[in-house]
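Cross-check.
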Amino acid sequence: MPQDQQVDTITLAQQARGTAKPVDPEMLDTLFIGLLRSVTLFDDARRFMSSNQFRPGEEAHYACLWGVLCDLREEFDQFSSQMLYDYLHREFRHNPTMLHPNMQARLLHQGPGGLLFEAFTAEVSHIDTSYCRALMRNFLLERTVLSPLRQMMTPIDQGLYADGLPDFLQAVQRQQEQIMAIESLPTEDPVPTAGETIQQAIPKYGTGLKFIDDPLGGVSPGAVYGLLAVTGGGKTTLGFHLATSIAQNAYAYAVSHGFRPGLVAYFTYEESAVRLRPRLWSAAAQIPRDRLAAMTQLDTQLRTEVDPTSYEKYLAQEGEPKSELERWNMAKPWLSECVRIFDMSGSEQHPNAGTGMIDEIAAALEGWQIRTGQHIIMPIIDYAGLCCKRFMMANNQDDSKLRGHLSGFGHQCLHKIASRFHCPVWVFHQIAPAEAMKKNPATLLNHTQAAESRAFAENMVACGCVGIPDPENGVRRLNWSKVRDTRAEGQPPYLLQVSENYAHMIDVTDRFTVHQNRFITGDDASRLADVANPQGAAALQGRRPGREIAPEIDG
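Predicted model, tokenized:
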């Protein structure tokens, strides 16, 4: 949210405002009459209400009745007046002190003033369930939001600071949002009303990476995308390539149209930001990562002239080459404005970050918006498994909880980040191929093979799987195993290769092909098609040692 839209809480607290009447016994009687006669209302209430929300003493009979109603609904799927009378009479005979005699009579008296009597003799048509629903909402707001908030503030009134207040306020906000939704139904009219403006589909925009844009048609704000890879499969390299491509394009578009560009936020849980920065610089300025990592002053140590004998000879094929310093100076404006690494790895620089899972990510993004006024273009989370494990360690959870956290990861990202900030979210995670697959780089991997969770890709628009790199040439397959858009149906997997020079993932689909569970160049494939004798195959094998290549003969 931009800074000019933030609420000034100090001014808001000083404003004069009215007071609301607390829930009284008459309101609770009306609410329970509705609960006793409307199963739908009762089932809605059971999602939120509990016996400990009633005040001890003066509301003990409501707590007792609520507990009995829940037990009967759970055991018999229903409750009637006779069932309730029998159940309560039996309970009070066995334990006469469980409820004061006056309160027992308040429930069981079979005449005016008896709660069960009034509920089951009332005409159903005279029971306003909408009013009862509003009473339930007010009761829940009072007992689960306002009362706990008042208790939490008590130490502050005494000059003390309530420990854990930010987490508590966040929980209160979530509770309030759920309560406020009680009166609404999650449905829309199937036919537009006269004059209604029909909401159009959210347009997609390109990432600048062909192997993402072609099969997916770009990415959509408000959607979650997944990427799985084996250890060493290139997740982080692809992540920085994606981040810098998006950031550079967004910066150029914003500058040309006269507005401030947004931010690509990279959340790292495996390596510290300090260790990752050279890889980011490499992706942004097309300078070898090893050279950057060995430098102490980039502006003075980068070459000022193009060296045609070095890696820079490849840049000449893409146009007029520029020196390292020129490329770095060209990248610095958009890199400093549009990219930030959020260090969640527990590093020495930020030891307390990275233990709050998705809530912490959402809070960091909102904090950045509040502090800078810059909107979020795209968060990239690298990677989900470690994000969950760091949260579990901080909360003393055992490994059995990991599957549940990962299975709900996409859902939480969708609602807490993508929808909230109206941006696409990329979630990286490891894939756990079987041992047999590790011997076969050409095997297509699937999102159901995600480590610790077959349901990892739920609530994601698409999920791509990067396969095992071929040990001879580093080629690996990218298989979009889940895509909601039919655009990717029938498309063959992409072949990718990490650049030898910079932190880029290169599409080499046009240069390589699959042959006997390995990847060979197009030239080799052509030779194999022409060679139909052992001598030719042997000659080819001799030119590429360590691989058994045999000719394929039709017929």
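The first strand starts at residue 224 and ends at 229. The chain has two domains: 21-154+166-180, 210-510. Passed to J.P. for a second look.
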